[in-house]
Amino acid sequence: AQSVTQLGSHVSVSEGALVLLRCNYSSSVPPYLFWYVQYPNQGLQLLLKYTSAATLVKGINGFEAEFKKSETSFHLTKPSAHMSDAAEYFCAVSAGGSNYKLTFGKGTLLTVNP
Amino acid sequence: DGGITQSPKYLFRKEGQNVTLSCEQNLNHDAMYWYRQDPGQGLRLIYYSQIVNDFQKGDIAEGYSVSREKKESFPLTVTSAQKNPTAFYLCASKAGGPYEQYFGPGTRLTVT
User: How large is the C-alpha radius of gyration of chain A?
Assistant: First the structure.
């Protein structure tokens, strides 16, 4: 079985501040991990993914995430928040198998204050 | 441009009526998925299909039905048996293997 826990349903930062969104996963096999972003009333867009290559993954819009096996974590960071980063962020895990189903966390809503 | 289309964007129905949500993809992906999204609950898997003419129940399949007669299309029917159908519905597709899912823009269904 696989699961994802996103710590903090709502994170608020000031423009220009560090963004840190936390994700911990549970998986019985080496996982594939993903971060998605969702703007209001839209679908999900892939930010970045970890598929067992480099543990530090760079994505779009200046975001990156680091896979830490010992901590079962895949936290998302961005050095300097921009107003356009305000959205909901979802972490997801796929533990392989015949269909590579994704299990999503409940999401973290990021608010960026001017 | 390749992508996933969902129609309509907004859908209103009366209680007791069945309604079908459309999902079409031109990415040549084998796998397709339907999710339901409610505030604060993330995405929950309703049904998925890995190949034409085959599909499996997800975590919350009760009150829903699907078909997969063509590779490009994976319509979802919300039946009158679904007790709380008002939600945002997302369709996704994926190439075979450990790859990311691509999402459509979603359909917001309101049942009154």
Answer: 14
Residue that has been written with the tokens 């890995």 in this structure: B50
Note whether A43 contacts B90, CB cutoff 8 Å: yes
| C-alpha dihedral sign at B101, A27, A8, B57 | positive
- Going through chain A in order, the beta strands assigned E by DSSP cover 3-7, 10-14, 19-26, 32-38, 44-50, 56-58, 64-68, 73-78, 87-94, 103-104, 108-113
pLDDT, average across residues B43-57:
94
CB pairs under 8 A between A and B: 48
The pLDDT tens digits for A35-94 are: 999 999 899 999 999 987 788 999 999 999 999 999 999 999 999 999 999 999 999 998
Closest-CA distance of chain B to residue A6, Å = 10
